[in-house]
Description:
CATH architecture of the largest domain: 3-Layer(aba) Sandwich
Mean pLDDT: 91
Low-confidence stretches: 1-27
Structural class: alpha+beta
Strand content: 15-25%
Amino acid sequence: MTNTSNSRILGALALALSLSTALPGMAEAKEVLTIDLVNEPATLDPHKQWNPDSYYVYRNIFDNLVTRDDAGEIMPQIATEWDQISDTEVVFTIRDDVMFHDGEKLTPEDVVFTVKRITDPAFASPQLGQFDKIVEAEVMEGNKVKLTTDGPYPALLAQLVKLSIVPEHVVTEVGDDAFNANPVGSGPYKFASWNRGVDVKLERNDEYWGEKGVFESAVFRGVPDASTRLANLQAGTADLVVTLNADLAQQLEASGRGKVMTVNTERVAYFAMNSALEPLDNMELRKAIGYAIDREGIVEGLLGGYPKVVDELVSPAHFGWVDGVEGFSYDPDQAKEIISGLGEDAKQTMKLATSPVFDQRVVQAIQQMLTDVGLSVEIETTDMATWLKDQQTTPDQAPMLTFSRWSCACQDADGIMYPLLHSSSAWSRFNDGEIDKLLDDARSELDVEKRQQLYADLHDLVIDKVAILPLYQAAIIYGGAEALEWQPTSNESLFLNRMGWAE
């Protein structure tokens, strides 16, 4: 793996060189970049909640062990190279020129502390299921860290793309809550302030070891209404806005005040049915729901054709994608026929959990489709923080129905299928030994072809047992100021130091 790592280092240097020649001077007329999110962050601690509005912000405060370039290739970051010394052991060489924002040096001990923190069951990170294969982290001679997994783990590097390194001396001194309120990282931007309910401000880290940002500061605002986000962009009070729908994108294009920036992401929209609760423990009812949802109609009629319908719980951006998988076709007559034979099971009112961060047109369309085939569905809307809390619980306490979209930012099937389907996960609404075994086997199989076949088997089994309903590969639509220079990526990262400004 060393040779591969060296080539990645050369690639990273080439990327840095190209950026260094392209970006300086581009932002002379733009000191503050204003970004409108859907909600304010739920957390700024990178080991706590995993949701877009939080990730957009804290990803700029912290460096990760490894990262991805704009093409999606895994590249060095805090780790300069890595060697797979056995099926279960990887040794990482840690940069020796990185300083945290408080002036203290980042050390291998901080990396080990970070790993042990996020894998500690008592810490209860929502990301635990993506890192719990790591059973040991230890400092080695030569500024190195060795990670040991409880078996072969081919998705390790893909998951480590998300592992933000935190300073042991700060976290242990102030505690988790205070760290969340005033996070200290080593990234290209430093935390400045969090005016709850209004905005989060970051300031450029002029001592950053890597490519520095061109903007002196950035302000992230929570603006739940998409039309308001668009209006802010067109008025010039926002420079980048997230999560526009197709109608607003058309308005933006027609207005000539800003530009549409879009990419098909690794985020998969899905419909979860809590099979631990009646009447959804009845597989026939879940089948009826599968036939009742018109995914093509949602994509083409509501979402402007930007997303891509998928029949598996991954996107083409993931390892584990299999061409040719066929899920449920839209067949409302078949749904009605099934429901007519279910008797009382089909008459119970089921609550559909949602939050304003999700496109409510899609939620309402699904509710109507289910109503049209004879089911009773009631939408229950909560703020995002409450929604997240309600989702991360035991199946008997979780919502009956959920529309959501999932991204692991790792581009590996393990990062989405394991948390949403394995019975050990707080996110899962399904408990099946056969699916659990395939998930466990797939996350420990080092042979690429064998691993791909395991996911092919999983996709078929998920359909057969109606464990969850994949809907579409989400496309994210951003609105940007004309002068903003930025390439959106499938892992939905807003790297401020990869943005420029050209008047």
